Amino acid sequence: MSVNLLDEPAVVGSAVTFLASVFVLLTRGWHAHFTGDFTHGVQKVHTHPTPRIGGVPIAIGLVLAWALVSEQVQALLGPMLIAGVPAFLFGLAEDLTKRVGVLVRLLATMGSGVLAWWLTDISITRVDIWGVDTMLAWLPASILFTAIAVGGVANAVNIIDGFNGLASSMLVIAAVGFGSIAYQFGDLPLTGICVVLAACTLGFFCVNWPFGKIFLGDGGSYLLGFGLAWVAVLLMHRHPTVSAFAVLMVCVHPVTEVLFSMYRRKMRKTHVGMPDRLHFHSLLGRRVVRHRTAHLPPLLRNSTTGIAVGMMSIPPVIVALWVHQSTFWSATALLGFVLAYLTLYARMVRFAWRSPLALLTNRRMRD
User: Fold this and answer.
1) Residue 266 three-state SS
2) Which of 1, 110, 263, 351 is deepest in the core (most CB within 10 A)?
3) Mind telling me which residue stretches traverse the membrane in this protein (predicted)?
4) What is the DSSP letter of 287?
């Protein structure tokens, strides 16, 4: 098996995802009543009803790519795709009905994590924190932690999916990052999964960005978020010298976003699952991009915001490639990126540079 053998399945998966996305777009008149993401809602920034079932083309592309990859890659990718079914189906049900609650979808993504363990006998057994690793040596604790971690990452990807190209570009960058680390260890099967995941996501991205003709939707964000999380679990399992902090660094933006959103809503005494316009990408779009690109139409400002925030994942991935075998430097770099996020967030809500720690102790955040 060589890296070149990974090219054809990835290209096919990407092309099929692209063509299936175009087909959804061209036939939207037949299904828009069920699949359209309409314009009302606190987090909505688009101006026309848009198909939000981008997860369907991605799922088709992944399955066809699986049929073409080597047996070694199939052995890893197959269980991941099967385990991702609950996350995908419950997300797709929300896309079609708009009636599936946040808690139900969270449990579905956690269920995918448990199913992945059941199919592979693989779970998270270390996070490189003394005491916690001892607890994770107990299998029930390890399974529960895996479910929470996988479900958390999948929901984090869904939360940042607010502008054209944001979630999909971040997913491509993160998949390339994990694949690059795996390749450094000569792990071609895991590299192959990352290549396929990135390629299929890229096929969707080419239809979604910059004109936002189709959205990832909950089905797509949960499926890809779960896939990315499971690749992280596999990387740590197959290569014990890879620091858990480096793995987390690759996904630092969505993970920080979801944790800080929960903290922010608790501080403001609002429901933790209540949508608002105080996400990092929402603030950047309204308070920075809109003023710096006032000459652009709203659609292109939307896409500019999406790609700008998505590209923020590049520095953490590059640093993770350098320090992934050092727990100390990985943890230090991870902390640095979290503080940088909070500092930028504080700048946007206070209109002046403030300490990120002050942000954590103040409830007042202007929408």
Assistant:
1) helix
2) 110
3) 12-30, 51-69, 75-93, 100-120, 135-156, 163-183, 189-207, 219-236, 242-260, 299-322, 328-346
4) I
